[in-house]
Amino acid sequence: MDASVIELYEQLANAPDERTRARIIAEALQALSERFPHLDHLATRQHLSETELRLTKEIEQVRSDLTKEIEQVRSDLTKEIEQARSELLVRIEQAKSETVRWVAGLWLAQTALIAWLILRAAG
To answer: Where are the domains of the chain?
Structure first.
């Protein structure tokens, strides 16, 4: 135990009256505040526990919000990908259709040209 604490006890025990005891206590408190001027700013275990609980709640809330935002972004991206896929399939089908029309047209033109050449050569 610190010697100053024992001295304080001795002074209080030997004080002749309450007024003297009060003065001894006031002097001890003044010495304590001079030695530790920011004593009222110290955190207690309860303060630390409350802060830890508050931070844990905030972390969980942020984690929950972030998970929701990630799911929303994932959902939006999935919708966009599906829309782009659908548009791409439509364009592919249109390109196929156009290609078939061109090939059929060229085939008919080629057939007509060959038939004309055969008829011309025969006649």
So the answer is: 1-42, 44-123
H helices, E strands: number in the chain? 3, 0
Enter the DSSP assignment of 38.
T
pTM over 0.70: no
- Residue pair 24/15 in contact by the 8 Å Cβ criterion: yes
Using CA atoms, how far apart are residues 106 and 104, in angstroms rounded to an integer? 5
- Is the pLDDT reported for residue 77 higher than 60? yes
The contacts of residue 36 (CB under 8 Å, 6+ apart) are: 42
**Per the structure block, which two tokens stand in for 4?**
């100053």
Q: Mean pLDDT for the chain?
A: 91
Measured distance CA(25)–CA(72) in Å, rounded: 63
Read off the pLDDT of residues 21-57 as tens digits, 9 standing for 90 and up: 999 999 988 888 888 777 667 778 888 999 999 999 9
**CA geometry: angle 23, 24, 28, nearest 5 deg:** 115
Residue 15: φ, ψ to 5°: -65, 135
